[in-house]
Amino acid sequence: MKYRIIVLLIIFGSCSSPDECPQLNYNSINKLTTLTDGLPFTGRCTIYVDGVKSSVQQYLNGIDYGNWIFYFSNGKIETKGKFRDGKRVGKWRYYYESGKIKQISSYSKLGEREGKWIEYDEDGKIIRTTEY
Predict the structure, then answer these.
(1) Residue 100 counted as domain residue
(2) Looking at residue 16, what is its pLDDT?
(3) Model-wide pTM > 0.90
(4) Distance between CA atoms of 132 and 117, rounded to whole angstroms?
């Protein structure tokens, strides 16, 4: 029952626009994000820089988790991807400030580079393909 409630909270929480992130501290040595009281942060929140949305982030017990989105200062998406256990997983998409796709990258379930990575120029033409 407890598991079902947690899952429902995550689902409903991800449907609405996330609140602004509380004051967070990141420790680059243990790669843990904590609140000011030192407790690991769990939740989805938005970072603003000078009043402009910079990113939407999600953490589970202080570790990068779930869908993340980074924004250019003009409000367009810069990067979209997913974390699991602090590692990039699945497809990550990077964009030019114009909104056109810049790169598509893939990561394994373990966070390792895999598959075909494709880079595009501003006109949408492939400029580089790398196999991992």
Answers:
(1) no
(2) 59
(3) no
(4) 8
Question: Among 118, 74, 116, which residue's Cα sits nearest to residue 97?
Answer: 74
For tokens 């590692």, what's the residue? 87
Name the strand (E) or helix (H) holding 35. Answer: strand 32-35
Domain assignment present for residue 130? The answer is: no
DSSP 8-state assignment for residue 17: P
Indicate the residue type of 115: G
Spatial separation of the C-alpha atoms in residues 7 and 27, rounded to whole Å: 28
Contact criterion met (CB below 8 Å) for 56 and 49: no
Q: CA 73 to CA 51: how far, in whole Å?
A: 10
Q: Which of 10-14, 17-21, 60-64 has the highest mean pLDDT?
A: 60-64
Q: How many residues does the chain have?
A: 132
d(Cα 20, Cα 98) in Å, to the nearest integer?
26
In tens, the pLDDT along 41-55 reads: 999 999 999 999 999
Total domains present in the chain: 1
